[in-house]
Fold this sequence. Notes:
Low-confidence stretches: none
Mean pLDDT: 94
Number of strands: 12
Helix content: 25-40%
Number of domains: 2
Order of helices and strands: HHEEEHEHEEEHHHEEEHEHE
Oligomer: single chain
Amino acid sequence: MDNTDLAALLDCVGRTWTPSQRLHVGDVAWAYAHGDGSAAPDVSLAWGDPLLGFADVWLPGSTGQPATAALHLAAQTMTTRQLAEAVDELLRVAPRVTVEASRQQTEVVEALRTRGFRETGGPWFARLWRSLADLSDLAAHPVPEGYSVRPALRHELARRVEVHRRCWDPARIKRMLGLPVTGDEAGSGYSAERHRAVMDTPVYRGELDMVAVAADGSLVAYGLGWLDAGSGSVLFEPVGTDPRHGGRGLGRAVCAEILRAARDLGATQAVVGPRGDGGYPAPRRLYEGLRMREVAQVVSFVTG
């Protein structure tokens, strides 16, 4: 399959979406636009017509480490044999490979285990969910005094990019993860070109690209919501607050506004995928404060 066919990837993920699966259409669009900073895969695999599953594979070169694969299998519409054949083809491309899968997608986990995959025991991600039927609880998360929250404007692209870069500065992320900071870390690679690619994806909605604005007009926090109209679900990916304005409830206020806007656009439920283990607990606390609860655990499996 030509990996440029984003529409097919979005249809594959959205057609049988459940809150407990690893990918939402927003994850696909964000990764496809390289918003996450990922490189183009070395190999792309696809199964079924219409598409039932796909994998992007990054080979390790001469490092001796396992390859990495981003794998999606629509287990609800694939037979046991089709699941096994897909995993077998992945292993032919990368005999030693790490993948992530939701523990709640038991058919996928079983297909991996029967082919020799085992859990790595490393960091894992939670899948948190809430209904949007009643948003009255969001009144507990008002916009802090001196700030406002609104959708980002097209003419402020440079400022929208800069607030992302401040929030996701690599040295800052290392500190939050308890990793050593060397002082020679490069800045964030997020750019205007990358954000334009995000905006060009068919599921980007400007109404859900929210920013928090300080009294001096500077952008100090943001959150991007991705609406899947088919399932009526909205995903948060990513969300960030400038560290100089942290601890004031801006993250929750931005997310609360995304939930209201998504509800007005027809969404009935929301999901997000923060770290689930204790290595980076702040994002999970933010979303649980918005009454989002765990419905799945996404863990790493490795073979070889």
